[in-house]
Design brief:
- By secondary structure, the chain is an alpha+beta fold.
- It has nine helices and eight strands.
- The strands form four sheets. The protein has a two-stranded antiparallel sheet with strand order 1-2.
- Helix 4 packs across helix 6 (136-146) and helix 6 (136-146) crosses helix 8 (184-191).
Amino acid sequence: MDVYLTIDLNIQMILDSVINNAIAQYNPDQVMGLVVSTKTGEVLAMTSYPYFEPSHYQDYDPSVYNRNLPIFYSFELGSTFKIFTYSVALELGLIDMNDFFYCSGSTTVADRKIKCWKSGGHGSQTFLEVVQNSCNPGFVELGQRLGKETLFEYINKFGFGKKTGIDLNGEASGILFNLNKVGPVELATTSFGQRFEISPLHLATAVSAICNDGVLVEPRIVE
């Protein structure tokens, strides 16, 4: 009777409303939502769909109630990873936000042509605009400036590739490249979030470190 959760009921109700609207609009197979305090790591709201009724759990497929999606499900980060590449480049002084970069619409790494999402490219832009435009060639440039050892050093510092330590069962550790198998193409694609997987909780925790002056906190759900 003396166990209390970090869940904030008001925030949880708001999150559930957003999730329910998404379900009604898109009819998805699954949806997940997560709100974490950047300062303390407290999970303020967490939702996983499909739902189940705990008092009648036997009426549902076990895959529904055995998988808390925000901590169990791993996915390819894509452009949400770009904030990490950018923050490391800023931290190490490898770029100034007002420096210019030219995007022609693609860049060539080894024998691979890597395209920008914008046909024809973004043209001349500052590195601030590179992140605002989510410009893939710009992030390939950042990855090359960092080099694979430095980028993966910080990927590890952000906690990717291992469990966050949250006080719940069933947490995924994610999937990362073996550094020895990272060549120029893998470095390029990693710099904008492709070819490795983490959970939503990993993402929220790592972003919190950026919002928290670089301090990585362990998430928790028990007060």
